[in-house]
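Private note to self, pasted from the team thread so I don't lose it. Backbone tokens:
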């Protein structure tokens, strides 16, 4: 079985390690890098996976998942370029950074696959979008798809669509959490205890998501099934429309897309400077 190294053990890196272990991967097949020794020790204790340097990961791993923040990518790529094996596959989870950036820095011909996952990876319910770089072929995409299928669902998209994916599903869980938080507050406003309001809303969210996932119908039809003439739901929908909630969501996701584009451009500008 291939050795996999996760470079950067932040929230998404740890989520991937945890998900891979829950998906049946052996701790002996996994490595990770972490620049803070206390954090590395914590992860080794929690998961039984070995922490290594970037150079050692490059020498030992068949597949390297780069999960650092975009602003931290330069030193990681510099270390990888010095030690990367010719047969290694590099997978980028870095928001906004194109595969071309990796290909310019790493040895000629290095296959790179760009991925936009999200944090439900921690519970095995991630939504990940993959895009191959110029040196990655269908087999490389299959390897990455198999890897990520252990922690959720995977879709392949052209790299030109990755900024939109970042805004929609990469940041998407935060939008749902925001809405759930607001609805719990509404329950408290109406006189419910916080614990009761939370249980009501969280289970309602789980049930609604399950109906969507199992193909119970288009979202419009499912909403209409709850919306009786002159009933409570239509009055609530009227208020949502009056306050521009739909337009606000569209604008928010567009703003997230624009920020993803900016992250990529900012790195390109810093390279030229």
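Design output:
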């Amino acid at each position: 079985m291939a050795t996999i190294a996760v470079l950067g053990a932040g929230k998404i890196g740890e989520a991937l390690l945890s998900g891979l272990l829950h998906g049946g991967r052996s701790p002996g097949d996994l490595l990770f890098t972490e620049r803070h020794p206390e954090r590395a020790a914590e992860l080794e204790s929690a998961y039984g996976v070995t922490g290594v340097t970037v150079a050692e990961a490059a020498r030992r791993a068949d597949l390297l998942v780069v999960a650092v923040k975009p602003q931290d990518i330069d030193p990681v790529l510099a270390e990888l370029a010095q030690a990367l094996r010719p047969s290694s596959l590099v997978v980028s989870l870095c928001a906004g950074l194109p595969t071309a950036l990796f290909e310019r820095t790493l040895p000629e011909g290095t296959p790179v696959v760009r991925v936009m996952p999200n944090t439900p990876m921690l519970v095995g319910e991630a939504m990940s979008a993959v895009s191959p770089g110029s040196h990655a072929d269908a087999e490389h995409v299959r390897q990455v798809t198999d890897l990520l299928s252990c922690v959720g669902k995977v879709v392949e998209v052209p790299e030109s669509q990755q900024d939109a994916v970042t805004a929609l599903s990469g940041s998407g869980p935060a939008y749902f959490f925001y809405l759930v938080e607001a609805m719990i507050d509404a329950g408290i406003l109406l006189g419910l205890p916080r614990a009761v309001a939370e249980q009501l809303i969280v289970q309602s969210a789980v049930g609604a998501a399950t109906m969507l996932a199992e193909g119970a119908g288009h979202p419009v039809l499912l909403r209409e099934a709850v919306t009786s003439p002159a009933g409570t739901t239509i009055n609530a929908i009227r208020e949502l429309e009056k306050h521009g909630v739909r337009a606000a969501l569209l604008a928010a996701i567009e703003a997230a897309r624009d920020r993803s584009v900016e992250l990529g451009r900012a790195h390109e500008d810093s390279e030229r400077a």
